[in-house]
From TrEMBL:
PROSITE patterns: PROKAR_LIPOPROTEIN (PS51257), TAT (PS51318). Residues 1-22 form the signal peptide. The keyword Signal applies. The keyword Lipoprotein applies. It comes from Sinomonas cellulolyticus. Keywords: Cell membrane, Lipoprotein, Membrane, Palmitate, Signal. This is Extracellular solute-binding protein. Transmembrane segments: none annotated. InterPro entries: Bact_solute-bd_prot1 (IPR050490), SBP (IPR006059), TAT_signal (IPR006311). It comes from the Bacteria.
Length: 446
């Protein structure tokens, strides 16, 4: 991922007057906390109470392990809805009111959006770079912006394929190695009253991840602003591929992953596979009667020279701008996300996605899985997947709006609008969204 300066994230080459307008309307009631003097650590013997807002279940049990060995720095957690389901609106409102928690769970793709409203502390001012060597370089790059660090990687979702060998066996197939093979097997499965997978027209994060795996890099920063290219060969080839898959009936668009319709079809053996993030293993294990029937394989590849996987999801533990104790908040975030004790506790109590620390995948994930037929899939499949990622992919300041734009277009597939046309139209709308926020953007020249 290319390094972004904060100026590139926030203004992308705006003049002084335009930049003042941007910060005046985008900031929720504050100027950047990162221009003020750094806040000193608490005095010896002073008790500090940190608040942490997260959508993880039972995360207080994780904090309690820290609390037991850190009597002077106690962490209290508050559950909020996940990101765009209401959690972010609560965080933005709290920031605007001059309050909010010390830490919050923020998706990696949303970090630039919080930077846009001066919502995050630059943790490099408190020593965050000292911990960079602990984390996967691809994930650390997604929280690093030209000298600044705006979150600590918490988890990710390297993609793999969860599949039913017995369903594939109906057509004499194994887990497809390439996407072309996937399509060929999918055609045969229709004669066996099964789909190879579903394709969500509502959740465009899957399509985005597939494009990234193919080598796409939709937006990048430049000295004069942002550069966009959503109509590159990689993206359009992926769009054409899934246009054909939908039109030929290879996949179903009647439901998305982990919806009631999906669970019903998976339980009946009407779905042969699902290509999703590593975190999907817990949800697949909720399929009725599925124990022992599922296995895990690498996701299909587009090109032997391309990427073996892609990320679907990933979050950070970020320190919010109004924290009075950013040093202590950083220490807790690093403990929770990089130590064996913290990672094991997050897995056991909260079911986090893939560990951000190479070499520490969590004790529970080092063992074979009874549900997946004794397969040691985390070691054999997910570890290699985490090492085969598109390092050129980066997120941008209007990611949420971009996903909504793309989703609105994808939903029109049923009425005849192709995914290819949707991607091209979305590119123009996303450029407009940038400009409406006072950000500079241009189309990459061929």
């Amino acid at each position: 991922m290319p390094a972004l300066t904060r100026r590139q994230v926030l203004c992308g080459g705006l003049g002084a007057s335009a930049f003042a307008l941007l910060t005046g309307c985008a900031t929720p009631g504050t100027v950047s906390v990162n221009t003020a003097p750094a806040i000193p650590a608490a005095s010896t013997g002073e008790k500090v109470t940190l608040t942490y807002w997260s959508w993880l279940k039972n995360v207080q049990k994780v904090a309690d392990i820290w609390n037991a060995s850190h009597p002077d720095v106690q962490v209290e957690t508050v559950w909020i809805p996940s990101g765009n389901r209401g959690g972010y609106s609560k965080l933005y409102a709290a920031l605007a009111a001059g309050g909010g928690p010390d830490l919050a769970q923020v998706e990696m793709r949303t970090v630039p959006e919080f930077m846009l409203v001066n919502g995050l502390v630059d943790l490099s001012r408190y020593g965050a770079r000292e911990y960079a060597h602990l984390y996967d370089s691809a994930l650390w790059s997604q929280v690093s912006f030209s000298g600044g660090v705006y979150g600590i990687p918490q988890d990710s979702g390297p993609m793999a394929t969860f599949y039913r060998p017995d369903v594939l066996a109906k057509v004499g197939a194994a887990a497809p190695v390439t996407w072309e093979e996937w399509a060929a097997v999918g055609k045969e499965l229709r004669g066996a009253n099964a789909y190879i997978d579903c394709f969500s027209l509502a959740d465009t994060s899957y399509f985005v991840s597939f494009a990234a795996q193919a080598g796409a890099s939709w937006l990048r920063p430049a000295e004069d602003g942002w550069v966009i290219n959503m109509t590159d060969d990689a993206t359009l080839n992926v769009a054409r591929f899934f246009d054909r898959a939908i039109d030929d009936g290879i996949v179903t668009t009647a439901y998305g992953p982990f919806t009631p319709g999906w669970y019903a079809a998976a339980a009946k053996g009407e779905l042969a596979s699902l290509t999703s993030g590593s975190w999907a293993d817990a949800l697949v294990q909720s399929v009725s009667g599925g124990a022992g029937k599922w296995r895990v394989a690498p996701m299909p590849i587009w090109d032997p020279r391309g990427y073996g996987s892609s990320y679907l999801g990933g979050s950070t533990a970020a320190v919010l701008a109004n924290s009075k104790h950013p040093r202590e908040a950083l220490e807790f975030a690093v403990w929770m996300t990089s130590t064996q004790a913290g990672i094991d506790a997050e897995i056991a109590n909260s079911g986090i996605g893939w560990s951000p620390v190479p070499g520490i995948i969590g004790a529970k994930r080092e063992k074979p899985s009874d549900f997946f037929g004794g397969q040691n899939y985390n070691q054999d499949v997910i570890v290699p997947a985490s090492k085969s990622q598109n390092m050129d992919w980066s997120w941008w300041p209007v990611t949420t709006q971009s996903f909504n734009i793309l989703g609105d277009g994808f939903r029109r597939k049923a009425s005849g609008t192709s995914l290819v046309d949707t991607v091209a139209a979305a590119e123009q709308q996303i450029m407009t969204a940038f400009r409406n926020k006072g950000l500079t953007i241009r189309k990459e020249q061929a």
